[in-house]
Design brief:
Layout: H1 10-65, H2 71-74, H3 81-125, E1 127-128, E2 149-156, E3 179-187, E4 194-199, E5 204-207, E6 210-214, E7 219-225, E8 228-232, H4 233-253, E9 259-264, H5 268-274, E10 278-282, E11 286-288, E12 292-295, E13 299-303, H6 305-313, H7 323-342, H8 345-348, H9 351-364, E14 365-368, H10 372-384, E15 390-394, E16 397-401, E17 407-409, H11 411-423, H12 431-436
Parallel strand pairs: 1-14, 2-9, 4-15
Antiparallel strand pairs: 2-3, 3-4, 5-8, 6-7, 9-14, 10-13, 11-12, 16-17
């Protein structure tokens, strides 16, 4: 340090300036060191708390698992035989409880793993085929449909592998894959109802342009089939497969189809046999001019696999208003009965029946976004709801075929129906709907009772 009394010159001023700078640096260093020491102390306190808590918890657990005898316990007075017996019994109960808890935890772990493995195995059985377009611009009020489950169910009748006893023809006589059944099953987000809407296979539609579908490989080609303004509904699937049919359904309904389920009719036989038959209600004997006598009894009748196949295929039944509407009603009854039986206690609790049913179902089923969870959602909705909350409808049509032998859609009534499904409001024709629309004319039920057409109808089977 410089002497403040020495003569002040330039050299002295420079030394004083350096000394002052060093002093400031030293003070700043001391302040930083003090702050760092405080931070370190806070960190140590923060670390010490959880460490102490962990140590306390570990010590408590040790005391529970293996109680430690204290010096006072060792110096305690000798116990009587009764006290020793009680203590042994108490210690034995604690050991048994611990062992039981460990075994239970292991069983839960194993059961969870077994269920996961079984579910994975079941899901692997389903054949995936591209069908969905959940971002389509045709979807209306997409946000309002969040949580809704819409299953497009198609019954495909390929005839491949059909036996002579089934009397339905073979793949050479009736080639390709056709959508003989088209249903849209709607389960809203609140799961308070389920609505199944059927579409006649001879419904006249404006078929959109679609990629060509190869039913043999389950794939699409680069060829684009042009749009057609007047075509039968079943040509959409025959030409463009699941994608084309889904595209048309979303254009018509505005609903987001998020599950596609295709079922080969031939697989119904194995499914029904797997659950030892299903029960359907028959008002009068069912006799088909092509298949012969399908069911001769009336009332609640349990049908086998062969009968079930004829039951869903029959479209030339004596007394039917039209070939489409009679078969639609039988198919709706059958699918509902099959799902009820598959979800019954007798099947669910029987591993053999359940495995055989799922195996048969998966072998005959293909689709997009389907699996155990999705099918359980559909089955539980159709089985667990009050009958008044489960509704089967047919899309509104005139009930008569036009000059081309096609059913004609009632567009206004169809639009009202699908808006009610999208908005989760009462269905047209229901008392709730009429109460909400007192100024409107009474609206007939969306399921018409069609009159017999005097025009010639398509005879393809």
């Amino acid at each position: 340090m410089t002497d403040e009394l020495e003569p002040v010159g330039d050299h002295t001023k420079v030394r004083r300036k350096i000394d002052n700078t060093l002093a400031r640096f030293a003070a700043a260093h001391e302040e930083l060191a003090a702050e760092e020491a405080k931070r370190q102390e806070r960190r140590e306190r923060l670390i010490a708390r959880p460490v102490a808590l962990i140590e306390q918890t570990r010590t408590r657990l040790q005391r529970v698992v293996a109680p430690v005898k204290s010096d006072d316990d060792e110096q305690a007075a000798p116990q009587t035989r009764l006290q020793e017996k009680k203590q042994r019994r108490s210690e034995r109960s604690i050991r048994i409880t611990r062992i039981a808890c460990a075994v239970l935890a292991g069983l839960i772990f194993l059961a969870t793993g077994a269920l996961w493995g079984t579910k994975t195995w079941f899901n692997s059985k389903f054949t995936e085929i591209a069908a969905l377009d959940e971002n389509s611009s045709d979807i209306q009020n997409a946000a309002g449909q969040t949580g809704d489950e819409n299953f497009l169910i198609v019954g495909s009748d390929t005839r491949a592998g059909a036996t002579a006893e089934e009397n339905v023809g073979d793949a050479d006589a009736v080639g390709g894959a056709r959508s003989d059944t088209v249903m849209l099953a709607h389960v809203p987000a609140d799961r308070k109802r389920a609505v199944v809407v059927s579409f006649p296979r001879d419904l006249e539609i404006s078929r959109p342009a679609c990629e060509r579908y190869d039913a043999n490989t389950g794939s699409y080609t680069a060829e684009v089939v042009p749009a057609v303004t007047k075509a039968k509904l079943n040509t959409a699937y025959a030409v463009g497969g699941p994608k084309c049919l889904t595209k048309w359904v979303q254009q018509l309904t505005g609903m987001r189809v998020n599950h596609f389920v295709g079922i080969d009719f031939g697989g119904f036989k194995d499914m029904v046999d797997a659950v030892h038959g299903v029960t359907v209600h028959v008002d009068k004997p069912i006799k088909d001019s092509v298949l012969g006598m399908v069911i001769s009894q009336t009332g609640d009748v349990t049908i086998s696999g062969d009968q079930a196949l004829s039951f869903v295929r029959a479209r030339h039944v004596q007394g039917d208003p039209t070939s489409d509407y009679g078969r639609i009603k039988r198919q709706q009854d059958f699918i509902s009965a099959l799902l009820r039986k598959a979800m019954s206690q007798g099947v669910i609790t029987d591993p053999t029946q359940l495995t055989n049913f799922v195996t048969a179902f998966a072998r005959a089923t293909f689709g997009d976004n389907i699996g155990v969870d999705q099918m359980l959602t559909l089955a539980q909705s159709m089985k667990g709801l009050d009958p008044s909350k489960l509704t089967f409808l047919t899309v509104p049509t005139t009930g008569e075929s036009n000059a081309r032998g096609n059913e004609v859609l009632l567009e206004t009534k169809s639009r009202d129906l699908f808006h009610a499904l999208i908005d989760n409001t009462p269905l047209p024709g229901s008392p709730e709907y009429e109460a909400a629309h007192p100024s409107s004319n009474p609206t007939p039920s969306p399921t018409p009772t069609p009159a017999k057409s005097t025009r010639s109808r398509s005879s393809d089977s």
